[in-house]
């Protein structure tokens, strides 16, 4: 067997094919590989001369590793894993026509996973959507604000710079979903889905008609298909809700 762990135990590191090493194994043993096989590991893999697996890693796990300044090797690996993750998602084809509303408000600083906050996960997922999207909304995100804006990401693949860009975006304590849909219909074609990555602190709706029903009428008049609105509750185990489920309360 050419199992990585078995080859390591038998001191046969020269036979390890780093391009095929499982992502979790690669991340855990990066320092070991660098110490015992520096030429092949550092030059061929960490410098992106080889393909890097992502395996079952989640977007925020890759992003957090890039932000970890304690190990330049871990950073290099994660930076190389991100394009592989994007390629895997693009291949699935589900999110090519979607856009994210990214909540980076103060309440999002609460912890959500080991070494990651709600904001970190929202940024990772929003960045992923922006980079796999195609058409007029490629590399775009909508801010979480009373007057939301359609913002284009800077032309860089450096995850540290992109993360910092997200954290500096304007934010409010809630967002105006009517304006979110106004921004969406300005694209041609409008997105198929709008994902809201948030801890669900929204302002109460006013009037006798929900925002979504008003927007639905506006889209019908223009002959446009209303995007599916997905509220992804990062602060709860409930997960996400699609707009038809919550149409009467939003």
UniProtKB/TrEMBL annotation:
What superkingdom heads the lineage? Eukaryota
Q: Specify the DUF2828 domain's residue ranges.
A: 1-93
User: DUF7788 domain spans which residues?
Assistant: 97-237
Q: Output the Pfam families linked to this UniProt entry.
A: DUF2828 (PF11443), DUF7788 (PF25043)
Q: Which InterPro entries match?
A: DUF2828, DUF7788, UCP015417_vWA, vWFA_dom_sf
Against PANTHER family, the record matches this protein to: OS06G0652100 PROTEIN (PTHR31373), TROVE DOMAIN-CONTAINING PROTEIN (PTHR31373:SF27)
**What's the protein name?**
Uncharacterized protein
- List the taxonomic lineage: Eukaryota, Sar, Alveolata, Dinophyceae, Suessiales
């Amino acid at each position: 067997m050419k199992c990585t762990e078995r080859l390591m135990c038998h001191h046969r590191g020269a036979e390890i094919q780093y391009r095929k090493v499982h992502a979790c194994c690669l991340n855990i043993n990066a320092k070991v590989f660098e110490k015992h096989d520096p030429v092949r590991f550092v030059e061929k893999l960490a410098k992106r001369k080889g393909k890097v697996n992502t395996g079952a890693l989640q977007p925020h796990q890759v992003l957090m590793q890039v932000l970890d300044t304690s190990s330049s090797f871990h950073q290099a690996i994660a930076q190389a894993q991100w394009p592989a993750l994007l390629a895997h998602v693009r291949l699935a084809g589900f999110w090519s026509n979607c856009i994210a509303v990214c909540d980076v408000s103060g309440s999002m600083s609460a912890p959500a996973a080991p070494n990651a906050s709600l904001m970190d996960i929202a940024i990772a997922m929003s960045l992923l959507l922006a980079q796999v999207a195609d058409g007029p909304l490629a590399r775009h995100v909508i801010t979480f604000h009373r007057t939301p804006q359609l913002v284009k990401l800077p032309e860089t693949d450096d995850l540290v710079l992109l993360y910092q860009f997200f954290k500096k975006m304007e934010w409010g304590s809630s967002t105006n979903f009517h304006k979110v849909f106004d921004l969406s219909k300005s694209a041609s074609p409008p997105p198929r889905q709008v994902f809201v990555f948030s801890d669900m602190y929204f302002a109460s709706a006013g009037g006798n008609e929900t925002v979504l029903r008003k927007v639905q009428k506006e889209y019908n008049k223009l002959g446009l298909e209303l995007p599916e609105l997905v509220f992804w509750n990062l602060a709860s185990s409930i997960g996400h809700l699609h707009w038809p489920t919550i149409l009467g309360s939003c």
